[in-house]
Amino acid sequence: MRSPSINIQSRIPTINPTVTPRINSNIAGTAVTGIGRTSPNLRTSPACSYAYRDSGGECRDQPVTSADGGGTGDASKGRNKSKGPRRIVTQTAAINPNSIVEIVAEIDGALSDAQADQLARRHGLERLQSQNFALIGATVGLFRITDRRSFETASRDLGTETNIRSVQRNFRYFLQDQKAALIEGDPAQYVVAKLRLPEAHGLARGANVTIAVIDSGIDAKHPELVNSIGDSFDALGSKEGPHVHGTGIAGAIVAHARLIGSAPEARILAIRAFGTAPKGAESTSYVLLKALDYAALHGAQIVNMSFAGPKDPVIERSIAATAARGIVMVAASGNAGPTSPPLYPAANPNVIAVSATDAQDRLFAASNRGSHIAIAAPGVDIFLPAPDEKYQMISGTSFSAAYVSGLAALLLERNPALKPEQVRGILTRTARDLGTPGRDDLFGAGEADAYAAVLAVRPAVPVAGVPGGPAAENVKGAPDVPAVRALDQPAATIASEKPAAGEADRAAAQ
Question: I need a surface site. Which of 23, 224, 234, 509 has the fewest CB within 10 A?
Fold first, then answer.
């Protein structure tokens, strides 16, 4: 294969084989959120958590709590349909006066647009938009505070209306990527071997499986992605072009030219939910609600969410509704480092949370930890497509999550009847243990093994011609899951897998 001549302007590095591999130990705890523009040397102070910082590391809006003590959960619980609002949301810390404060509120679906506008004006608000979301069975509006009142005051005032069911902040979410160190050779090769993709692709390649990628813009014309983008939706209503993050995420899943994704024959439902902002790329609660609603109603079997933010009532409600439809959800654990609290949506129990490893099976220093981590996958020094037929090298739990979404597609190709909990169980029971023996807060069940996972879904007919391929029954912890389709593809050549590695890099520079 001819070595690439990479020309991706200054924001994407050109591979130089003379550069010694380096990983910046200071990346842990940094808040890097820009698309194609990263700041690995940014540091954050402990004054506020990563989930509420902008891409410059500055404190933004703080988390909210509800008057009923929760601040999260199903907005439909405890609703009093005859006596007005169910709860009022209050904020726990001062608001950044330079930020635009927006309110997300569930409103009476019987209100006309004119009535909703009139209601907003009565409370010093401007209704930016509203729509009915079939996913959660509710009409939700987005409102902007038009005067200098605090969020607490404005939301308390709005919550007195009998036509308002719930009120919360329009939270911000950020993509989970970081600039990678340059290394010699093609770094995509270690991912292929680590996940044992060639062996797995001899059995399944993700055909007839739809994966919704909620991210930034994707370059559907890239040679790695041609004919893989089945549908697209812009939840922002923007005119922005493709970006490196979304294009890279799609490539990790379906690349099929000089690179190979984890599910090269899967169908991508490209949903743009992250756009450029003054200090990077971001999305909000309301935009993500639209994205999840579209994914659930347009045939997504898997949803990839390579972003992170706070625990958010309306998004938690949407994820619960998505899970109830039998849709597999995968999310990046986050790049906020070892001291960060759990970030969402990864920490939601309905979501498969993925941490990142490097070529030596060490934990990515910036990867979030916690009891919610389900599994790990390669996410350091990853070689992926970038817009305009270019390529990039990048790191982050974003890309680990994307690879696992592809592995889920392999399982669903083998058996489309698998439920989300079965997919999770197969992936975790067949993972290769890393770090402390057994499940741990760094790697979860261990590093994903595509070949073992695919074998664990027993085919309708015996699989022949797979060198060294054990029967599904011989895979440790393999569930007895019948397949619903016969397999007729020949086995691929097996790539060598590096031996199990050492312990994770538990320390992260402050």
Answer: 509
C-alpha closest to that of 505 among 448, 442, 449, 445? 442
CATH number of 174-482: 3.40.50.200
> Rounded distance, CA 94 to CA 114, Å?
33
The answer to whether residues 89 and 167 touch, using CB atoms and an 8 Å cutoff, is yes
Whose tokens are 């071997």? That residue is: 193
CB-based burial, 364-383: b 16+ in 10 Å, e otherwise? bbbbbbbebbbbbbbbbbbb
Residues designated catalytic: 215, 245, 398
**The pLDDT of residue 495:** 29
Query: How sure is the predictor about 100, in pLDDT bands with cuts at 50, 70 and 90?
Result: low
Contact 491, 199 (CB under 8 A): yes
Res 500: pLDDT = 33
Strands in 365-497 per DSSP E: 373-378, 382-386, 390-395, 457-458, 481-482
For 423-475, write each residue's pLDDT tens digit. 999 999 999 999 999 999 999 999 999 999 999 997 644 444 444 333 333 34
The answer to whether the CB of 101 falls within 8 A of the CB of 144 is yes
- Total count of residues recorded for the chain: 510
How far apart are the C-alpha atoms of 445 and 245, rounded to whole Å? 27
Residues of CATH 3.40.50.200 domain(s) within the chain? 174-482
What are the pLDDT digits (tens) for 400-414? 999 999 999 999 999
CA distance 289 to 229: 22
pTM of the model: 0.70
Tell me, what's the pLDDT at 177? 72
Residue 281 near residue 242 (C-beta atoms within 8 A): no
Residue appearing with tokens 């592809």: 406
Q: What is the rounded distance in angstroms from the CA atom of residue 118 to the CA atom of residue 217? A: 35
Burial class (CB in 10 A: 0-12, 13-18, 19+), 227: exposed
Residues of the chain with CATH 3.30.70: 64-170
Q: Which of 397, 395, 399 is nearest to 180 (CA)?
A: 395
What fold, for 64-170? Alpha-Beta Plaits (3.30.70)
Both tokens assigned to 80: 């009093």
